[in-house]
Amino acid sequence: MSPEQYDVWYETPRGAWIGGIEYGLLVRLLQPRAGETLLDVGCGTGHFTRCFAGGGAINTAIGADTDAAAVRFAAGRGQAAYLVADAARLPFADRSFDLVIGVTALCFMSDERRALAEMLRVARRRVALGLLNRRSLLWLGKGRHGGRGAYRGAHWHTRREVLDLFAGQPARNLSLRSGIVLPGGGGLARRAEPLLGRLSPCCGAFIGVAADVVPQGG
């Protein structure tokens, strides 16, 4: 799938609905403050980098990804700066950004703990991840047997695995939420999402988790 084909999905009715829920969940977890800076690790075509850059609070947003074609596409869309970089060796000094995010990026990385450690290293205030939930209807439809389509090869996390991912890392005050319980995106799914999200807070296809960065020497 080309970067253009991947990115245009967010302009479809279902893609816009899902992307909107994911972005809204991440905003609630991060609570960005006016003038802050943000790094999007594994930014792909830059959809969420652009969302945060245009959200009003973020002063500077940068996206990083190993896929040079995706980075070129993202740069062509503007609103943020982009570079080719490995999540396991981010080319930034300690505490370079107020906020650092990774939206389903760690699901495709072989050493997700190393990537999270790097994200925490370059963050000053808060880090947030978007992960795929194994205890979800989307996993039943798209994630089994190695995954299908854009989900091929992805790791789908359980709540326990999310907690283990952060265990021993310089992070505290962990917050975890999920969204997109009915991933079809039809009228019923949209109407039911707020209620289902309250009744089944850990059954959504998208897990959002955020934590405060432990200050150096803290």
Describe this structure in words.
It is a single chain. The protein has 218 residues and is α/β, with parallel strands linked by helices. It has one domain (3-213): Rossmann fold (3-Layer(aba) Sandwich), CATH 3.40.50. The chain is built from eight helices and seven strands. It has helices at residues 3-8, 13-30, 47-53, 68-77, 112-122, 137-143, 159-166, 187-199, and strands at residues 36-41, 58-65, 81-84, 97-103, 123-132, 171-179, 206-213. The chain has a seven-stranded mixed beta sheet, with helices on both faces. It is globular. The termini are far apart.
Indicate the topology:
Elements (H helix, E strand, L loop, with lengths): L2 H6 L4 H18 L5 E6 L5 H7 L4 E8 L2 H10 L3 E4 L12 E7 L8 H11 E10 L4 H7 L15 H8 L4 E9 L7 H13 L6 E8 L5
Parallel strand pairs: 1-2, 1-4, 2-3, 4-5
Antiparallel strand pairs: 5-7, 6-7
Quick structural summary:
This protein is α/β, with parallel strands linked by helices and about 220 residues long.
